[in-house]
Amino acid sequence: MDSADIPLLEVRDVSKTFPGVRALRGVSLELHAGEVLAVCGENGAGKSTLMNILSGIMPADEGGRISFRGKPWAPRTPRDAKDSGLAIVHQELQLVPDLDVAQNIALGRTSGKGPQLLVDDRRNRRECAKLLDRLGIAIPVGARLGDLSVAEQQMVEIARALSYDAKVLIMDEPTAALSQQEAEKLFDLVEQLTAEGLGVIYISHRLHEVMRLADRVTVLRDGESVFSTDRSEVTRPLLIEKMVGRPIEEDRRIASEPAPEVALEVSHVSTEALLDDISFTLRRGEILGLAGLMGSGRTELARAIIGADPRSAGTITINGRPVNVRIPSDAVARGIGYLSEDRKGSGLLLEKTVSDNIAIANLPQNTRLGVVDGAALDTIAEKHVRNLSIRTPSIHQTVHLLSGGNQQKVIIGRWLERDTDILIVDEPTRGIDVGAKEEIYTILEGLAEAGKSIIVISSEIPEILRISHRIAVMSEGRLAGVVDRAGATQDTLMALATTGRDSAVEGVG
C-alpha cells in the first residue's frame, strides 16, 4: 500500500465496557492527513468514550486495534497521547485564567534542556509568539488569559495543543460558546491547519458546521459506528436520520396561534450598561423568538425583565397591570420563570438529585413547620419525569449524570411545577443533540398551546425560525425590529441583527 493511502489514525473494532454498560461496540473509523473527519451522534452515542480512549484518558477493551501513523498504538496517559502527536481541545477549556497566554501554552512542560524546576519565561514567550504568528492568531503572549474573550481563549487552547507538534487534533464542540463571526475565524484556522497536513476530528451537534467544514462524516449511534461516508454524499436529513435512527421533520413549524390578550408588555426599558429604550409585547400562548448576535443584549434584556439587572428606565406590565420587579424573586412571585443559558453554572444543582432540582422552586409549598415533605416532592418529580419523558434511572439520580437534553427537561419541570405563566428560555438547546432538540421544541410548543407565554433566546437562527410565532431581533442593545414568522428568513433576521445602533428601530407589537 502506498504510504499516502495509509490512514493517519485508524480505529478498528474498538469496544469499551463499564460496569453494567456497553459504551462502545466494535467502533471503527479512519482519519487521513489533511482532512476533517466529523464524528456525529446523539448524547450517549459513545463519542466522548471513544475520544477518551484516543487521548489516553482510558484504555479500550481487548480485541480491537488502533493504529497511529501506520503503527499499533495504545496511549496510556494524556501526556503519552500528546507526545505521540495527538492532542484534544475539550469543550470545557483546560486553561488557567490568572496566567498569561505564554504561560498557559507552556502548561505541563518546561523550556530548555533537561529536567528543570523553573520555566524559562523569555524563551517560552519567544516560542509562543512564533507559534501564534504561524497560526495567524493576533493575541499578545503576555495578555492575561482571563481578560480574553471566549473565542480568543479557544484559540489559545488550540495553540497549546499544537505546541506539542500534533499530527491529529480532536476538537470537541469547539464553537459552543462562540458567535458566528468567531466561529468563522475558527473554521479558517482549521482549514489552514489541514492544508498543512494536520488531521482533524471535529465533534459538533451543529450540523451546519459539519456540512460546512467536514471532508468525511462518521456517525455513532448507541455505541456503534453505523454510517461513514464522504460529506459530499450526505444531506442534512440523511445525517439526522442516521444519528437518531428515524426521520425528523426539521422544517415543521408550530401550528397553534396565540390568543390576542397581552401577557407581558415591556415598555421603554433601558439599563446603564447596554439596553436602550426597548419596547415589545408577548401574547398569551405565544412563543416570541429573541434573536441577535452575541453581545447584542438578548440575555441582558431577559435579566432586566426578571430583575437580575437593574433597569434605569422603563416599565414591566403583566396581564395589564404594571409590576415592580426589582429582584428575581419578585419575577417568580409574579409568574415569570427564567431558564439560564448556563444551565450547569446557574440553573442546576449538579450534585443534587432530579427530585431536589425540580423541587427547589417549590420548597415553601411542601414544607410544614420547617420540615420538608420528601414523599410529596418525590411524587411531584415522578410526575414531571413521566410527562416530560426525562430519561433517568431514578428520580434520585444526581443531575450531573444526565445528558444535556434531560438536564434541560429537569429545569423545565421545575418551572412547570411552579406553574409560571411566562417562561423565558435562554439557549434552550445549547449542547443538545438533534433528537433531544425536537423533544424540547415539542415541550415548548405544548406549553404555548396550553396558554403559557414563552420567550426563546437563541443564537441559532434555524431554531428561532422553527419554533417562533414572531421574532424580535436585537442589535447593539436596541430592538432592531419585530417580524412575523411568515415573513422571516435567515437573511432578513441577519440583516436586522447587523443593523447599526443609529439605525435600530423601536420594536412594535
Give me a quick take on this structure:
The protein is α/β, with parallel strands linked by helices and 509 residues long. It has 17 helices and 22 strands.
How would you describe the overall organization of this protein?
The chain is of the alpha/beta class. Helices cover 33% and strands 23% of the residues. The chain is built from 17 helices and 22 strands. The chain has helices at 47-54, 78-84, 101-105, 121-135, 150-162, 180-195, 207-213, 236-244, 298-306, 328-333, 343-347, 354-359, 374-387, 404-418, 434-449, 461-467, 490-497, and strands spanning 9-18, 21-31, 36-40, 65-68, 71-72, 86-89, 168-172, 199-203, 216-221, 224-230, 262-270, 278-283, 287-291, 313-318, 321-323, 336-339, 367-368, 371-372, 422-426, 453-457, 470-475, 478-484. The strands form five sheets. The chain has a six-stranded mixed sheet, sandwiched between helices. Strands 16-19-20-13-21-22 form a six-stranded mixed sheet, sandwiched between helices. It has a four-stranded antiparallel sheet with strand order 2-1-4-5, with no helix packed on it. A hairpin with a 7-residue loop joins strand 11 (262-270) and strand 12 (278-283). The longest helix has 16 residues, at 180-195. It is globular.
Structural key phrases:
disordered C terminus; 23% strand; six-stranded mixed β-sheet; 17 helices; globular; alpha/beta
